[in-house]
Specification:
single chain, cytoplasm, nuclease, DNA repair, archaeoglobus fulgidus dsm 4304 fold, about 260 residues, DNA damage, DNA-binding, hydrolase
DNA sequence: GCGACAG
DNA sequence: ATCTTGTCGC
């Protein structure tokens, strides 16, 4: 797949103000409600797929790793994509591109967007849905990496983050039971009316011991997906591990490919 | 000045 | 995110 909005592709040469201005454009173009019918049950369950007509949807997980040069300085980013259909991997691709800027909270898409788009161009199948490691609408300008990629590609996207960038949970998120979700609403750090629902803390896995617990994932709409569906999809795809399977596999593939590139 | 900060 | 082996615990 390739960008349908080349004008909005993240450019690391921009000034910080220009980057944030672009993010406001992205947020304005983003659709934070369900735009396509995505049945979470058909994502990973082959039986549900067989029972209904047509092919099950293709879901892609995207994750990055980084390579160092001889000095130990990070100089390249590697983006890995794992595409799944009916619970099975149908394609894996990766791309390596030079690293342009350091990590700056809020500007992740300008650091990692290049290799992601390069890897997605190498992908031969057309995903119906993409999951990213990072935020979507849970972002200062409501334009996290999942939203940015979603608008540039005009594809349904979901952000899956392991920690909360901004916003505020409506209730305690400690030690939630498996399958639970807690709404995340905009606070004064988010460029949205206070109280706006921007995502969910989603507990995909949990221990049963009283002294230790697993932190939830922070799931938010990227583009063309609403917050409830985003949470439903992540729960449906996280069958045996904390991370939804496409993202977990992309995570592993990013490490595997990095080792291969190093040799 | 202080605090907060995806990967 | 990254440098890294084994190891403690359910």
């Amino acid at each position: 797949m390739e960008p349908v909005r080349p004008d909005l592709v993240p450019d690391a040469e921009l000034s910080r103000d220009e980057m944030e201005a672009l993010q406001h454009e992205i947020a304005d173009a983003a659709v934070f409600v369900d735009d396509v019918a995505i049945d979470p049950d058909r994502l990973s369950n082959p039986l549900a797929s067989a029972a209904s007509e047509g092919e099950p949807p293709i879901v892609a997980g995207v994750d990055q790793s980084f390579l160092q040069d001889g000095d130990g300085t990070e100089d390249r980013a590697l983006s890995a994509v794992v595409a799944m259909q009916g619970g099975e991997v149908i394609e894996r691709v990766y791309a390596v591109t030079p690293l342009e800027i350091p990590y700056i909270p809020g500007l992740l898409a300008f650091r990692e967007g290049g290799p992601i788009l390069a890897a997605l161009e190498a992908l031969s199948v057309e995903p119906d849905l993409l999951l990213f490691d990072g935020s979507g609408r849970i972002h200062f300008q409501q334009a996290g990496i999942a939203t940015h990629m979603g608008v540039v590609l005009d594809a349904p996207c979901i952000g899956v983050a392991k920690s909360l960038l901004c916003g505020r949970p409506r209730s305690d998120v400690e030690n939630l039971p498996e399958g639970a979700r807690v709404a995340i609403e905009a606070n004064d750090r988010v460029d949205a009316p206070a109280g706006t629902l921007i995502g969910y803390a989603v507990q995909t896995r949990q221990y049963d011991s009283p002294d230790r617990y697993i932190n939830p994932l922070y799931v938010s709409p990227g583009h063309r997906v609403g917050p409830e569906t985003a949470a439903d999809v992540v729960l449906a795809l996280a069958s045996s591990y904390k991370l939804p399977e496409p993202v977990r596999l992309a995570d592993g593939y990013a490490d595997e490919a990095k080792r291969a590139v190093r040799d």
